[in-house]
Design goal:
With 223 residues, the protein is of the alpha+beta class. It contains seven helices and eleven strands. Strands 3, 4, 5, 6, 8, 9 and 10 form a seven-stranded mixed sheet that branches. Strands 1-2 form a two-stranded antiparallel ribbon. The longest helix has 44 residues.
């Protein structure tokens, strides 16, 4: 009787060990299955990043709506602008008031000038030389008897016209670089379809040497 009881006890313990191994095997398999089902979701969330205009990492989804839009105004040729319609905003941006209800904001190609205070963009102070660049641009446009722009085929990510400005026949981007109030951006963004203007800007930057201020794109990232 005792021998039979001991044998049954060993059998139960063996069976429990078998059940334990089976349960453990199933739990491992389930964990692996759950992990494999979750993997694509994590991979999609960690989408690769691309570099934007200011070399700041942004997700591919974030830049999908920032693809350049086609310029609907006349582009690729010089267009005369009445100087009285021009309002300078900073060293590389101005607005043309074509009509009371039609305004065109121009982002000048080939250069980047020191920033001005802009609370909406998180810029709480002027960048050094920002006011000087603004004053230079205002003087240059005010003194010009003839103002012309030549638009690129696309707008920038903010919807602004990308264009070169010519004041009495002179490339304003070259003028700003020669005044040591702008850095050239051709080396970062290319010639935007204007090889002659871009070459003139790069030649001016070579003659002028490094600008006496921090690169505006780098300064923006430090704010």
């Amino acid at each position: 009787m005792q021998v039979a009881t001991a044998r049954r006890g060993r059998d139960w313990r063996a069976m429990l060990r078998t059940v334990h191994r089976v349960v453990w095997t199933i739990s491992v398999a389930l964990a692996a299955l759950v992990a494999s089902l979750q993997l694509p979701r994590h991979t999609a969330a960690a989408a690769p990043t691309v570099l934007g205009a200011d070399s700041a990492p942004r997700s591919r989804a974030a830049t999908a709506d920032e693809r350049p839009r086609r310029q609907r105004r006349r582009h690729g040729v010089r267009v005369a602008v009445d100087p009285r319609l021009v309002r300078v905003e900073d060293g590389d941006t101005f607005v043309i008031r074509w009509k009371r209800s039609s305004r065109e904001r121009i982002r000048i190609l080939g250069i980047d000038t020191p920033e001005l205070r802009n609370v909406e963009r998180g810029l709480l102070v002027d960048q050094p030389s920002g006011r000087a660049a603004l004053a230079f641009a205002r003087r240059a446009f005010a003194a010009a008897g003839v103002v012309e722009i030549v638009r690129a085929a696309t707008l920038d990510s903010y919807g602004r016209t990308l264009a070169y400005a010519h004041l009495d026949g002179r490339n304003y981007s070259v003028m700003a670089i020669e005044a040591h109030l702008a850095e050239e951006t051709i080396s970062r963004f290319g010639n935007n379809g204007f090889p002659r203007e871009a070459a003139a800007v790069q030649a001016a930057a070579h003659r002028a040497g490094p600008p006496p201020f921090m690169s505006p794109s780098r300064w923006r990232r430090t704010r």
